[in-house]
Amino acid sequence: MLAFDAPDAALDYKNRWAAFGIAEGAHGKIALVEVRKPGQPPYFDLPGGAVDGGEDEPAAIVREFGEETGLVVEVGRRVVEISQPFIKSNGQPLRNFGGVYAVTVVAERPDLKVEDDHTLVWLDPRDAVVALRHDGHAWAVAAWLRRG
């Protein structure tokens, strides 16, 4: 597992299993979500998130892609397993542990999208490496690009 960033020793981080996906569109761009929270600058993440009780990482990715983007995906190979401490937009310190996977978009289902503060955007993967909020996500996209 690759670890990114050093946690702030003054904060109490809650460990959270999470999984994320890299979905390439027909145009060579990858799916990101632009997240807009009131009173905060927008940021970009890979679609994905917490692994809920009873789920494995692939099931969490399928659910999260639907909730965040309205896309239905099939989960492929694991690109990398990462750990990244960060502060959630609500101020809670978290440390994500889990995989980033290559995924394939198989359908669009707008009725699945429930996270109104998440907007699907498609970026060139090289631009995504610069735009992504988490260094672990940026590294995963770079590794995905290099491995083809």
Key terms for this structure?
148 residues, alpha/beta, Nucleoside Triphosphate Pyrophosphohydrolase, five-stranded mixed β-sheet, three-stranded antiparallel β-sheet, 3 helices, 22% helix
Walkthrough of the structure:
The chain has 148 residues and is of the alpha/beta class. The chain has three helices and eight strands. It has helices at 57-69, 125-131, 135-147; strands at residues 2-3, 14-23, 30-35, 43-45, 48-50, 71-87, 93-108, 118-123. A five-stranded mixed β-sheet has the order 1-6-7-2-5. A three-stranded antiparallel β-sheet has the order 4-3-8. A hairpin with a 5-residue loop joins strand 6 and strand 7 (93-108). The radius of gyration is 14 Å and the shape is globular.
Content-based structural category: alpha/beta
The level of helicity is 10-25%
Architecture (CATH level 2) name = Alpha-Beta Complex
In round numbers, the mean pLDDT is: 94
Going by CATH, what is the homologous superfamily? Nucleoside Triphosphate Pyrophosphohydrolase
Please give the number of β-strands: 8
How many structural domains? 1
Shape: globular
Alpha-carbon Rg, integer: 14 Å
Helical stretch count? 3
Q: Which strands sit side by side, in order, in the main sheet?
A: 1-6-7-2-5
Percentage of residues in strands = 35-45%
- The CATH topology name reads Nucleoside Triphosphate Pyrophosphohydrolase
Uncertain residue ranges: none
**Largest sheet properties:** 5 strands, mixed
Distance between the termini: 21 Å
CATH class, named Alpha Beta
